[in-house]
Write a structure and sequence with these properties.
The protein is an alpha/beta fold and 335 residues long. The protein is built from nine helices and 13 strands. Mean pLDDT is 83; it is low at 1-13 and 178-182.
Length: 335
């Protein structure tokens, strides 16, 4: 927890405060103002600043179960729960104990481990469309990897996304719709070059677009969590599946938000529609930073496997701690 500390100790390695603030217990506003001098906007995700609702952020001191406590000692019922990533609640004993035990063995090796194998197997057991699973560091990496896989598999470039869906901070998916019902995208934020979204088509959610054979992939939040939790209308997901099959495009479900929340198999289990590729975020790691792409071999057993293997490497993927957290969370949830 945050507590007052001796300013002189703060200058040494002896200070053990979770957040060293010099002296005195700071308020939410004081920490936020101090943060603005070190962090752009004072927060690391714009939604946390509460500007859109005319508010000021609270600063977390700790959390347990369904409650969160700010640095001023106020205790709240937390309806956010890390946006659904900590589905057992904050600091569940089974999860924290499993992570602590795993950390003793090391946190990152740059080599395969039994824990990551078991995590992949756990996803396969629950999501039938995921016959093969590849891990990475975030949901954003997962969606960008899925798009790259689809383009490599089809030999095409165009990607279809939907208004109101969010697939992470990757340039090709940060597109805003132009004029018309179904148009090629325009840069949705500063710093995204027009060329990065030149092959991104933005269309209305819950309307099945007519595709052509230039389309490599359709990526969709099966339940549009990023615009108010909008469910798919009857026939929408089925229509996307049929349209992708018609032109040979890859259907990608972005289940970073919906995965394992709507059921053990996510939205695809709930609505009975199988995608070709599925992306996941930190829910698979008990809230720890991790992402994954899963897919089925039926797309093309030889070429598809080669694409997965040829993705490159990242020796910083935290599968050890995330795998331990996930196994503990699943065991506790089923108890």
């Amino acid at each position: 927890m945050i507590h007052p500390c001796d300013p002189q100790r703060c200058e040494s390695a002896g200070c053990t405060a979770t957040l060293c603030v010099g002296a005195g217990l700071p308020s939410n506003d004081e920490i936020f103002e101090r943060s603005t001098r070190a962090i752009p906007g004072g927060v690391n995700s714009s939604i946390r600043a509460f500007r859109s609702v005319g508010g000021r952020p609270y600063v977390v001191a700790g959390a347990s179960g369904a409650h969160i406590t700010d640095v001023e000692g106020r205790r709240y019922i937390d309806l956010v729960q890390s946006y659904g990533a900590v589905i057992l609640g904050h600091a569940h004993p089974a999860v924290t104990q499993a992570v602590s035990a795993a950390a003793v063995d090391g946190t990152s090796y740059g080599a395969p481990t039994p824990r990551e194998m078991k995590l992949a197997e756990a996803i396969r057991e629950r999501v039938p469309s995921c016959e093969r699973v590849r891990f990475m560091n975030s949901g954003t990496e997962a969606t960008s990897t899925a798009v790259r896989l689809a383009r490599g598999y089809t030999g095409r470039d165009r990607v279809v996304i939907f208004h109101g869906n969010f697939h992470g901070a990757t340039d090709a998916l940060l597109a805003a719709g132009g004029s018309g019902v179904a148009t090629l995208g325009l840069p949705g934020t500063a710093g995204v070059p027009a060329g990065a979204v030149g092959e991104t088509m933005v269309v209305p959610y819950n309307v099945v677009p007519q595709l052509d054979e230039a389309v490599a992939a359709v990526i969709v939040e099966p339940v549009a969590a990023n615009m108010g939790v909008v469910e798919p209308v009857p026939g929408f997901l089925e229509g996307l599946r049929a349209e992708c099959d018609r032109v040979g495009a890859v259907l990608i479900f972005d289940e970073v938000i919906s995965g394992f929340r709507l059921g053990p198999g996510g939205a695809q289990e709930r609505y009975g529609v199988k995608p070709d590729l599925t992306t996941f975020g930190k829910v698979i790691g008990g809230g720890l930073p991790i992402g994954a792409v899963g897919g089925h071999q039926a797309m093309a057993p030889g070429a598809y496997e080669a694409l997965f293997v040829g993705l490159g490497h990242d020796d910083s993927v935290m599968t050890e701690l995330a795998s331990a957290a996930q196994r503990a969370a699943v065991t506790a949830a089923q108890a």
